[in-house]
From TrEMBL:
Organism: Plantago ovata
Sequence intervals crossing the membrane: 24-45
Keyword Coiled coil among UniProt keywords: no
Protein's UniProt name: GT61_7
Protein location: Golgi apparatus membrane
Record-annotated Glycosyltransferase 61 catalytic domain positions: 225-343
Chief localisation class: Golgi
Entry keywords, A to Z: Glycoprotein, Glycosyltransferase, Membrane, Transferase, Transmembrane, Transmembrane helix
Amino acid sequence: MDNEEANVATSKIGSIFAVRFTQWLPGAFLLGCIIMLFTAVYTVFESYPVPLLKYSSIGNQQPIIHNFSNPRSDVYEMIGDIRLNGSSATILMVSNSENNMTPVTVKPYARKADNCAMQNVREWKITAEANVASPRCSQTITTPAVVFSTAGYSGNHFHDFSDTLLPLYLTSRQFNRSVLFLVTNAQDWWISKHYTILDSLSSYNILDIDSQNEVLCFSRVIIGLKADKDLRADHPSPPHYSMLDFAQFLRNVYSLGRESVKDFHGFRLPRMLIISRQHSRRINNEGDVVDMARGVGFDVIAEEMGHNIDSVAHLVNSVDVMVGVHGAGLTNQIFLPKDAVVIQIMPIGLDVLPHFYDFPPKDLKLRYIGYSVSLNESSLFGKYPMDSEVFTNPRAIQEYEEFKSIYLDNQDLNIDVSKFRETILKAKELLEP
Ligand SMILES: *[C@@H]1O[C@H](CO)[C@@H](O)[C@H](O)[C@H]1NC(C)=O
Ligand SMILES: *[C@@H]1O[C@H](CO)[C@@H](O)[C@H](O)[C@H]1NC(C)=O
Ligand SMILES: *[C@@H]1O[C@H](CO)[C@@H](O)[C@H](O)[C@H]1NC(C)=O
Ligand SMILES: *[C@@H]1O[C@H](CO)[C@@H](O)[C@H](O)[C@H]1NC(C)=O
């Protein structure tokens, strides 16, 4: 996407405040914090009713606040006379009622239990008061608005989809693009990077809401994004969208041609993408793996996933099998055609992490094969004594920084090609008609 394209995006409201679009500089960001904490990990959510906060209404105003919060994110939907001041991060709901609501604070980023992710997310305050000295509206906007943050772990490919883009889809698709995005902690490069998706969800320019010193008035605002398990679409409140809906949406957004793998039989060899990693969890003998897979009968591409989502999406959609070592690159399975095969190579010790990439294939109607490396395929072999806890009990390593350093940042692989061949053969079998 280039700057010009972003600037001509049409908007009546947005042009005044729109976020400046600058060219995204690959690699120009650093995650401010480590990727996750064990304490922030939970796997099971119970379904819950959506509570309506107390509200009696008098006269013709019917202010409503829905509470869609769950352990993953705080989400409130307000309908009524809503006055939002971006520079003070406050949302006031004018009520005719005598009952004033206890103010609620919300950090609109979907990784609520992770203090590390949340520390740089701006906190918003929602109050509901009888119309005592309501701030005057500078503009009244009839389009519904969604408030979300691009802080947290934004910039990491997995988190961009799991924490923001998928939740944003679940929250805002219902408006069929008639929705205004109010971004707090707005980061130009992030908006620029994901502009194609954002533009498919909203026909308006995106507002950098923090810099607004005026009071914007709305009749419907959602603050926070509906999210549930990582890369899954299980949020229990309607409207219900599935991961298949999300994948179909992405195919439309990026004009991806292949809905299913069934189109290649008799025309060409099955295609395999091996996601290369150069900086950590590297496959040192990647060339041997490529040769073996070619020997089995695949057309093989080994490539690092770049920052241009459009080209990554097209590449991934063109293959029938995607192979990757545990890491953010596997997030790209969302672009695979149905019935494609995902092979995740699991280095030593990572079994104790949440299984981010094992479950989505089921929802996406993909096939999944896990390949756990043996000790002798890992660079950790020989680096620590055999009776070290590094091998015998990875869970004993409590400090995430230490865990990350040992298993994630300093472990490369030498794949046992004849052992891995079995997995590749199985993938080939799965693709047969
Ligand atoms: C909204 O729901 C969440 C989760 O059930 C709960 O923890 C929170 O207290 C609720 N907020 C209000 C203002 O009732
Ligand atoms: C918005 O909030 C800021 C900071 O509290 C305040 O200075 C400003 O007057 C408010 N704007 C309006 C229009 O009320
Ligand atoms: C969504 O918007 C498009 C284009 O404006 C329109 O053709 C379509 O009918 C709308 N869909 C729904 C469900 O409203
Ligand atoms: C590596 O270890 C596995 C499992 O313990 C074993 O089957 C295999 O033969 C070993 N490979 C080599 C090259 O030593």
